[in-house]
Design brief:
The structure is a homodimer. Chain A is α+β, with helices and mostly antiparallel strands. Chain A is 48% helix and 15% strand. Chain A has 23 helices and 21 strands. In chain A, the strands form three sheets. In chain A, strands 2, 3, 4, 5, 6, 7, 8, 9, 10, 11 and 12 form an eleven-stranded antiparallel β-sheet that branches. In chain A, helix 13 packs across helix 18. Chain A is globular, with a radius of gyration of 25 Å. The two termini of chain A are 42 Å apart.
Chain lengths: 698, 698
């Protein structure tokens, strides 16, 4: 994952997770749990006291975008700030052939002009509870892997449902330390989110894919929403105050957000699996999608609009994965990992009382191997890579909803549990636009990919293609299905399995053809994941005993606290300073001849002379972030807003596997740059006033 | 292969070749041998008599661009016309950071201003001789595969050398019908080729990758050279006369050019291999390169210039292969192939006297399987996909030249045979620019690809990487090698194996590390190819007996004659007319807002009113073409020039496997459009006069 990528929900069974050789936290490393913050480190390193009040204020000001990013309340009247690229999905969905808000930008002068987002859900963390012992107690020792997985799923669903009923809050149990701990997170949930302001994508993503993950940078990657409840703007208990003078070189800063996923605690065997199997597969697929979407986009402006958000996500992931692959392919990084693992195992052996933890390493190797044998079918059939279309996804949700909903809560696939029902339905009945032509393009390619990967003579592939070419089959399915009509979806969902079975919808029929094998692959992998959880729990117990607490778990798209200094770095013998300015923006624009993606919106060309060109625009710090942190507020010692995370530099892409502060940096938009642009370029004085005072004018 | 792609020399061992179920020639099908032209078909279908004189005139006016394309003499003073994209490589090589002729275009007002191309070789076919019996006689029955391959290589080298010495002409034995026939081709060879005129790439490749392989089209894809000998323009025996009034809807036209490779005669087993192994590998690699080169190009204008030609080739191949894959993945096309093969086998069985031919099908399956087992190492190590850089290619040529040149002519790798010496040295000592940064980029990616494909723990991969990351290793190799200096290359080449061994050049050392395994893979595959040739020869003998002559062999980048009518087609219920005009060009430009790659060069915007907008610009016909035909002259019944092939439409991409005339079309630039543009937009009256009269002004 990476900051530019709105972190997308990882499917229930991540392919590789494990607790293993942690390297000792060093420098500004760490994506710390709010419930176990780095008090001592901050005191020793920065002479800073983390008080409970300071923490609670930042926690309750922080917002999770369930579409895959972070944000924060920045006014007492419900204003939420995030990245433009986090909001892109929402902007795209409210756009039309006439109004491409993603491209043109948007501003609502009045409450009335604010546009409600189609299916955006925001969460604000309210409380955390350690439920490890309750979860583990429910999984009897000696159970088979499948039974154990089921028992664990059941107790988790039970805890979540109970909490939801008792508190009315969204409640999710999260697996930490790859199985070492289970924490119950409770969130306030907002679904009436309205668009207030977005700049043109040209300036939000100035430099596009070429400058993505690079620094120096010049992006106004911001987007403002207002959160409503009962038809009125909310007045959140906490919101961040806008800093009067921003941050400066060397300052200590904090980042509060939702890093999606890291892989730092993996065993060497698991890292090798990523390097040899998982990353090559993913990169092959991403570059294929990139080529497909780019070619299609370039045929017309309307194509480009339709595919823009998808293409952005693909390119961004591709660049991030290429960076990750560079780390995995580096014998130096891998050597460090191997050495640390060896050292820890020796420590376990020397202590003489951890036979389980030592055996766990072997169990992880075996489980990883078993997962590897299922991985391809899992991704193609269960993750849907072989059908890549919204229509297929919807059809399958309808099919499975019919099968799952009659079951007891604890026995359902987790996405159909009571705790997830509201989010599921929000998504399923969303009236977001789905474009038939883009669907056909992507599905035809996905069916070809399916044939290539499993073989065109594979019996299931032959059933899927039904004697047609991938192009012809995709066209027939996409044109023949009715699942893109919300009313039809409601009918099948409400009608349950009987209605689904009677529908005869060709896409639902396809989902049926695939479902047994898809479920089988998932079940097999989940059983192995359970074995891994058990093994990892054994290692975690030993580690906590030997090394004490003071570790942070891998990222899980739950709220974390990171910290770091504002700081430049050395690259190819020259110093990269920590701040850029508007002057630099205009220079880069001129250098690239104002050609896309380095072109400026007309108003930026016109308003140049109005701007103070020396205003800090983007800056970097050493905070430990990853994808999902996009939109995270950056605050100073006083807890005031000084910037917003929107990316990492190219050197930060190995942060997936190990923290580094030599060159790796987190990129932010500077709070001063935001105000200057809103004021001088966009002339949105009301908004500037609300940000400065924390209140909108009555 | 495809027309847009300058056909690149296929390495000595094509991975799949075979003679199998030919489908009967239908409609305007066929890439016919000049030595066995479709006289009867043309008489019956078009009432046209192919006379020897007409054929010889067209043959000797036709020019092969050894960089991978076709062209023709169009004046008695040595003017040769080809496509801009065929000339792109040459344009790129003579360009500098100050003058990007590929982008800006070029015009030499005087002889003196003409720029000599760095390493371009043109060939004009002079005569053909059937040497099948001599080749086969030299391969004793009962020889093992390796010995047989060696014996065949030896006799071929002998025939070529003998012919070269006797006639002074470039002499190459070509394998036709996948081993059914061997023909000796003799060419006049020109290496002093000078650039005369090229339009801006913007207009030559208007619409870029998005409109590539599409129709309607609006491309001025032409480039003019002048051929010199002994420092003076040549006066070729034959050149094409420019037609006074061009061609019209329904007209019979001929295409004379060098289609690179087709796969129409493959057995079903071989096609399945392409579908299941070969194409997926190639597409994975191409999309990976496309992503890499595009990202890099977009970082700066200079990057873009350096990578442009390479990127164009990659995108073009990718689109062509995607089209081919669509054919292979189509059960209907594959079903037709299977039915035809079954039918022919039944005919063989019924005749009762072809046990060898029937057994040959099984032998082909076995050989294909054996080739498949070597294919990955062959491509990565021998074809160089694992090192993707000019520097590695040069280093390996130097290493091998040292080893091969002392051997007897017939025992060398064919690229080092006496017959190929001049071409090899032209290429090796070419002073073309090789960019260090681009080399590092590509090689780092290739080394990563190597690791992914063979596994990072493969012993050879570990030797190649030498404990470094792919990026670090590529940087060290590319920066450390001296092979990009021509003088250094000469020194090692002249010094032979001893000088090479003493050099200690890191890239040469790398080539040495790889060479044993690369040669082993090649040897193993060539042995299997020999078995295939033998099997295919058996099938070919039976076919010639059962079906007579009147077949054409798969394309081999040797001169072929195709024919077809100028004709539109139906698509999605609407008629696509056969001609476009300049008016259409300006419409598409306006529709795409003059943004790249739909932008027009300034002079095209300025001169719009000077142009007759109704002038035919591009047109289509049903002629049977493929990559390598780029630049082929299109002539009318009188043998006069009416257009120049530059592409096929998207429906033509399955022509690799089977001819089709329902929608598949060849695309040409119209002779009238060329003159109108040269005259009105470029104001190059002298050139227009030379094309019209066939002579330059004295």
């Amino acid at each position: 994952m990476n900051p530019r990528l709105p972190f997308r929900f990882v499917s229930a069974m991540t392919l590789v997770t494990s607790l293993a050789a942690t390297l000792p936290a060093r420098a500004d490393e760490g994506m710390w749990l709010y419930e176990d913050p780095p008090r001592q480190i901050l005191r020793e390193r920065y002479n800073f006291d983390l008080t409970p009040g300071w923490l609670e204020h930042l926690m309750k000001s922080s917002v999770r975008f369930n579409s895959g990013g972070s944000g924060s309340f920045v006014s007492a009247d419900g204003l939420v700030l995030s990245n433009h690229h986090v909001g892109a999905d929402a902007l795209q969905k409210v756009g039309t052939a006439e109004h491409d808000y993603l491209r043109e930008g948007f501003y609502a002068r009045t409450e009335k002009e604010e546009i409600r987002c189609v299916d955006l859900e925001l969460n604000v963390l309210q409380s955390v509870e350690d439920v490890t012992s309750r979860v583990n107690a429910a999984v009897a020792p000696g159970l088979g892997a499948e039974e154990a997985a089921l028992a664990r799923r059941k107790i988790i669903a039970e805890i979540e449902k109970e909490s939801r009923e008792r508190t009315g809050l969204r409640s999710n149990v999260t697996t930490l330390y790859q199985g070492g701990r289970y924490h119950l997170y409770r969130f306030k949930r907002y679904t009436d989110v309205r668009l207030v302001f977005a700049p043109e994508q040209q300036i939000a993503f100035f430099g596009g894919d070429p400058d993505n993950f690079e620094f120096p940078r010049y992006d106004l990657d911001v987007c403002l929403f207002r959160v409503y409840e009962d038809g009125k703007p909310v007045h959140p208990e906490h919101h961040l105050t806008w800093s009067k003078d921003g941050t400066h070189d060397g300052d200590l800063t904090f980042v509060s957000g939702h890093p999606g996923r890291t892989s730092r605690l993996l065993t060497v065997a698991e890292l090798e699996y990523l390097r040899d199997v998982s990353f090559p597969y993913t990169l092959n697929r991403l570059k294929r999608l990139e080529s497909l979407l780019r070619s299609w986009s370039e045929r017309s402006g309307e194509n480009a609009r339709r595919a823009k958000d998808e293409l952005f996500g693909v390119q961004n992931s591709r660049k991030a994965r290429d960076g990750g692959m560079a780390g995995l392919a580096d014998p130096v990084l891998m050597g460090r990992k191997a050495a640390a693992e060896k050292q820890f195992k020796e420590r376990l052996a020397a202590a003489g009382k951890y036979p389980e933890a030592l055996a766990a390493y072997e169990q992880l190797v075996a489980a990883q191997k078993a997962i590897g044998a299922q991985a391809l079918r899992l991704r193609l059939l269960e993750s849907g890579h072989g059908f890549n279309s919204e229509s297929f996804g919807i059809a399958r949700t309808l099919l499975r909803a019919g099968d799952e909903r009659p079951k007891p809560n604890g026995e359902r696939l987790p996405e159909f549990s009571d705790a997830n029902r509201e989010s599921l339905e929000l998504d399923l009945f969303s009236d977001r636009p789905v474009h038939e032509d883009l669907e056909m393009l992507q599905m035809a390619d996905a069916l070809t990919f399916l044939g290539e990967q499993l073989g065109f003579t594979d019996p299931l592939v032959q059933k899927v293609l039904a004697g047609q070419s991938p192009r012809a089959r995709a066209a027939a399915l996409i044109q023949g299905t009715k699942v893109r009509e919300v009313a039809y979806r409601r009918k099948l969902y409400d009608g349950g399995a009987a209605a689904v079975a009677a529908s005869g919808d060709p896409m639902v029929e396809l989902a049926k053809i695939v479902d047994a094998e898809a479920r089988a692959a998932r079940k097999a992998v989940e059983a192995q994941e359970e074995l891994k959880h058990q093994a990892q729990a054994a290692i975690a117990r030993a580690r906590f005993e030997l090394e004490g607490a003071g570790q942070y778990p891998d990222a899980t798209f739950t709220l974390r606290l990171a910290f770091g200094r504002v700081m430049g770095y050395e690259e190819n013998g020259r110093t990269v300073p920590p701040f850029t300015t508007f002057a630099g923006l205009y220079e880069r624009n001129a250098q690239m001849k104002n050609l896309p993606p380095f072109d400026l919106p007309p108003r930026w060309l016109k308003k140049k002379s109005a701007l103070n060109l020396r205003t800090p625009y983007n800056f970097i710090n050493t905070a430990d972030i990853i994808g999902g942190n996009s939109g995270s507020p950056v605050v100073n010692r006083a807890g005031e807003f000084v910037g917003i995370i929107f990316d990492g530099n190219i050197q930060s892409l190995v942060l997936d596997f190990a923290y580094d502060d030599v060159q790796a940096r987190a990129l932010s938009v500077d709070s001063r740059g935001i105000l200057e642009a809103l004021d001088k370029v966009y002339g949105v004085g009301e908004l500037v006033r609300e940000l400065k005072t924390g209140h909108r004018r009555k």
